[in-house]
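Page 47, continued from p. 46.
Same chain as before, 196 aa.
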Amino acid sequence: MRIGAEPGFEVVATAASVEEAVLVDGAGPVDLAVLDLDADETFLDLADHLRGRRPGIGLIGLTGDDDETALLATAVHRGVRGWVRKSADIAEFLGVLHGVHRGETRIPPLLLTGLLDRLLSELAEERAADRLLASLTPRERQVLAAMSRGASRPEIADELAISVDTVRTHTQNVLTKLNVHSSLAAVRLARRAGLA
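Result:
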C-alpha cells in the first residue's frame, strides 16, 4: 500500500511464484521488479526471464539472509541492481526503488567490500582457467568440450573418429595441462571459463 501511494509508482501486481510473475510480466509493462530471494531459488531464474524480455527493467533483490555475499554476487551477475534487507525500513526500501528506477545501482555499503572481493576472486579464477585452457591443443579442446556435454570415451571416439585409446591419451593430457586430478574437475574448469 505504501509503494502504491508513492508519487510516480504504481503497483502493477504481486506474485507468489515464478509462474505467476511470468504471467504478470506478459500482461503489461513493468519497469521495476522486486524479487523475494528467500522465497524461492528460482526467482533468480525469473531475473533472467525478465531481463530477456525487458532489457531495461530494474531488478531489486529482497532478502533476510545475514550471510548474503554469495547470493548477492549471483544476483548481480543476473542483473539485480538493488538490494534491500527485509529488516530495512520503508524509507530505505523506497530509496532503493527510486534509485534503481533512475538507473543507479543501490547496494548497501557494508556489503560492497564482500561483493567486490568475491567478484574479483571469480575474475581471477576465470583468467587462470583461460590461461590453462589456452595450453590445450584444438583436439584436446574438442575432447574436453565433449566431456563437458557428458559424452563417454566411446562416444567421444565415435564423434571425433579416433580410437578410445587416443581419447584416453587426450583426456590424460587435458588433466595434466589443467593441473587437475579428475575429469569432473576439468569439466568444472571448462564451464567456469565458458568453454562448455
